[in-house]
Amino acid sequence: MNSKTITKGILRAVAIILGSALVLYFLYRIQSVIAYIAIAAVMSLIGRPIVLFLERKLKFKNTIAVVITMLFLLSIFAGLIGLFIPLVIKQGQNLSLLNIDELQSNIENLYTEIITYFDLHKIDVEQSFKESNLLSKIDFALIPNFLNSIISGLGSFSIGLFSVLFISFFFLKDSRLFESGMLTFIPDDKESRWKASSSKIKDLLSRYFVGLIFQILILFIWYTIWLLILGIENAIVIAFLCALLNLIPYVGPLIGGALMLTLTMTSNLGASFSTIILPKTFWVLAVFISGQLIDNFASQPIIFSKSVKSHPLEIFLVILIAGILFGVLGLIVAVPAYTAIKVILKTFLSDNKIVKKLTKNL
């Protein structure tokens, strides 16, 4: 190997590294656009069954079916905003979530009531709290900062909404738009396989995202009914937030449960801790646990088995690994990404023994 060959190899390697760095930097700079495309893709997958129903059953033209679907999804979105935004604002005012000092005061008052209650029962928990130094470790600015960031982000919301709707419209109108773009990078002899796998992926992911909507709806209805029966203030908002957090596997339900209990206890400050706050909190905890049992043993198995056709243990391991590698984002995208990979593997590596085992239900 002469010096000229070595030089060419080094220059090629440097060019590849620089090219990769430029691509990553470019993707980083347009991350908002990537987010719009991802949201639009999910929205189009959710709307796809409606478009197909209108086209095949009611014989609507493609454009009309897409417009009706978009209007239907927009009406649901507008209804949610009209229902929940006023309630969320009211909840924020009631809890003074935008006031750090008042929020901290509420938590400390609750802490005092808990200590008083346990002191009456000869249980010394105050020393344990002091030793753990728990209150000093809590950053009370996190919640207000989070809410303030949401409020400040509303300025760019209209641009994002328009972008998502515009992209979603064309994804629904031309369902093969993304597929056609990908065919540019697929060899000619593999095009038919890619088209088959692309259609399969869209069908499975459409079922999956529609299933997630029903999963949230079931939890929302369950929580709302029982929280209203228990007389919890702003029960609809609490139920919706906890049901929505359930989209984040394993971590989301824990955050939702803590949120539900905290909002329940702080909304009853001033009432008797032993006769009102504590019993009501236990009942709310029972509602949350029962909702999670329904979700884990009824809703999720049906969604995973009927939509992505994967074993619950298989899904658990995939979500766990994705969470370790990519954090919360990995938890959210693990199942759709894994489903797409399985379909592609079955299409192109159907003779592989491991692939056969993993994709036997597809």
How would you characterize the overall build of this protein?
This protein is mostly helical and 362 residues long. The chain has a domain of 174 residues. Helices cover 83% and strands 0% of the residues. The chain contains 15 helices and no strands. The mean pLDDT is 75.
SSE order and pairing:
Layout: H1 3-29, H2 31-56, H3 62-95, H4 100-120, H5 126-132, H6 134-137, H7 142-153, H8 157-173, H9 177-183, H10 191-229, H11 235-245, H12 251-266, H13 273-308, H14 312-348, H15 353-358
Helix pairs in contact: 2-3, 2-8, 2-10, 3-8, 10-11, 10-13, 10-14, 11-12, 12-13, 13-14
The description of the largest β-sheet is: none
Q: Report the total helices.
A: 15
SSE series = HHHHHHHHHHHHHHH
Shape: globular
What is the tally of beta strands? 0
What's the N-to-C terminus distance? 50 Å
Helix percentage? over 70%
Mean pLDDT: 75
Are there runs of 5+ residues with pLDDT below 50, and where?
A: none
Structural class: mainly alpha
In a nutshell, what does this entry contain?
With 362 residues, the chain is mainly alpha-helical. It has a domain at 189-362.
Descriptive tags:
362 residues; mainly alpha; globular
